[in-house]
Amino acid sequence: MVSKKTKQKLMKRRIGSIARVFACASFLILTIIGVSSLVRAMSLETIANENGIPASWKAASLGNPDTITIPITYWDQRQENCNDPNRQFEWSLCRLYAKGIIRNVVKNRLGSDGLPVPSYSNSSDAWAAYHDVFTANVIGHDPVLPTDNFYRWFHEAYDANGNQISKRYDREVVFHRAGNNSYEYGSKGTFPLDDVNFSNSDETTKTGHNFHFTAHMRIPMKISADGTEQFWFSGDDDVWVFLNGQLVLDLGGLHMDTEGNFTINAQGNVVSTVNNVADQACRQTVSDPRLVGYDIYNSQVENKCSRKPVTTTIYTNFKPGDVVNLDFFYAERSTSESNTRINITNMNWPISADSNIKGEVVGQIEDTDNKLVQFETSITNRDPANKLNLERLAAYIEETTEQGTNEGFIPLTSSTLYYSTTPDDKDSWKPLEISTPSSTTTGFNLKTPLTMSPAGTPGDTIYFRYFAETSHHTGTMTGTISYYTTLNGVAGVTYDYDTVSYEGKITPQEYNLTINYLYKGDDTPAAEPHTEKLTSGADFSIDSPEIDGFTPDYSKVSGIMPEGDTTYTVYYTKTTPENPTPIDPTPEEPIQPDTPLPPVLPVLPNLPGSDIIDGDLTYLGPLGEIAYVPNTGIIRDAVAAVFEVGFAEIILSQGLVMAMLLIFAASFATWFSLRKYMNMNLATRSVTKKHPKMPTTKKITSAKATARNAHATRSTKSTRKTKK
Fold first, then answer.
1. Can you tell me the distance from the alpha carbon of 489 to that of 470, in angstroms, rounded to the nearest whole number?
2. Taking Cα atoms as reference points, which of 70, 143, 131, 76 lies closest to residue 487?
3. Residue 550 and residue 547: Cα distance in Å, rounded?
4. Is the peptide bond before 237 cis (omega within 30 degrees of 0)?
5. What average pLDDT does range 34-39 have in this prediction?
6. SS3 assignment, position 271
7. pLDDT digits (tens, 9 = 90+) for 89-102
8. Count H helices, E strands: the chain?
9. For an engineered disulfide with 639, which of 568, 596, 635, 679 has Cβ 3.0 to 4.6 Å away?
10. How far apart are CA 129 and CA 120, in angstroms?
11. Distance (Å, rounded) from C-alpha 353 to C-alpha 322?
């Protein structure tokens, strides 16, 4: 029968064995975690950003395609007779030839209908301003009326007899890649309407080309406003370029092929240069061709007045990331050439969406000085004909406090990101899943892409709501939202940002409190000044020192320390029966410092983090960086998949690491304390010592032992005889 003591030893042996297994297993898992951490650390890659956009998105959104197609609208214009007093289209057949750029033919802002507006509404004023026969009839109101000469330029129009004089054609133009990020359209000899028969009865069609037409093209784009974007235009005749409705390139008038260019500098202003600009002051001496004849007029313009380049700065005050519309207007008004060329370099285009964002502090995180910031944002499809797919979304935070700047992409999960197409319906908000970045190119993918309907139809806008957590310091938080979209297979990026100010934990400031003690009358010191440093808002009470024969006007100086250094003065007067000691009068108010007191803050709701988010809101760590292993180069491609994000998220989770550490520590400690029972002999139920000492003498009593000894003695004697 096994004794109770033996049973206890056996139980300890089993516990020790189990603890040893757990210790070995947990140590193996910790080793795997260590290797995984090392592999990921060796492949840590920063997701660089530019204005809050993952840098790889910018390149991917353009992708340097060979061509970019942009819609354009043309209006074919009928040729006018040389005797028509309102003539605008065709001059060469009437022996009048173009001579230089005439600026300010149209106003510097687009009209209320989004089209150019002539600077003058009658020909007399236009002639007086320009002395240019080609632009004297370019007249109209704001907006341009059907009765104005200029109406036909960008509308289908009819003359007084009901004959159509302009007809609209919607086409597309193709920009071809002319460099790494440079795209160009057009060439010398551009005739986009040679295939239409609306004006084929005109005299100039005998040349084989249609020389009379106007055009309007709009390109939505996102600007960098850092001087890198370059816009170059060349054409004859009129070329006007507007940015968000403001004229930035003025190549007006009838002229030969002439070029101009502009860029947007770091101050957000447009610097525009135009070649071949006519001297307007000189042209005031040019005579009316109806009075002097066409040949004399041509000679005067050619010989009297010079033409030169002119550079102008237009104060547009654009900001990096602004989405603007580039409106290009063009007119071909006479034979014998038709040239249109556009070159655009380093522009983010095409932009197919508008975005908007607004942030506000909605509460204070429970038991902390941190604030919960809610960002509401939206993206709208700009294209009226096509659906727009939203594939990626990234939120970037830049927080600035008295302690410094903290910035990076924030993790958006189904507990911190919601979306809706009908935001006023509280029940319509749904959580949205975004994949953990596995690389800088494919990171922040929507697990299920969202689709916006064409502009102007229900569902063309998607609204989002997400959250961020401030630090406990006072500061500002700038949230930038960036969207990666595709339209007909062409990718684009749009983004917007908003800045939220908040009050957090304010570090009390110390200021100097000084109390001077002076004799009244001569202002000489009566005692050493009292000086000390106190934090703003601290209570203080300082007794005035006693001086024999003198009485202070304040026996005690007390109050609350304001923000700023403060000085009090206590005067001592010689004590007389008529001047008894005063009874602690209220001290004079100190001079208030210039530093304003902190504003009274609104009471914020106390929000438990778990009610808003699942766990703490934390930035990706290291902030702004994503650890991932597509292929480190150290491990083979076949092994790399094992260390992809899905596996790494599990194996490197804090919970698993802590659990393994606790299991290892507990099991190892248990095994270590019970290790002496691991060598227990199950047959004898006794513990075998590892290193037993052999006795020096041993008494053998058994018969078998006696026989063995006798046999050993005989063997020894026999061996000795053999040796002899």
1. 38
2. 70
3. 6
4. yes
5. 66
6. strand
7. 988 888 888 778 99
8. 11, 36
9. 635
10. 9
11. 12
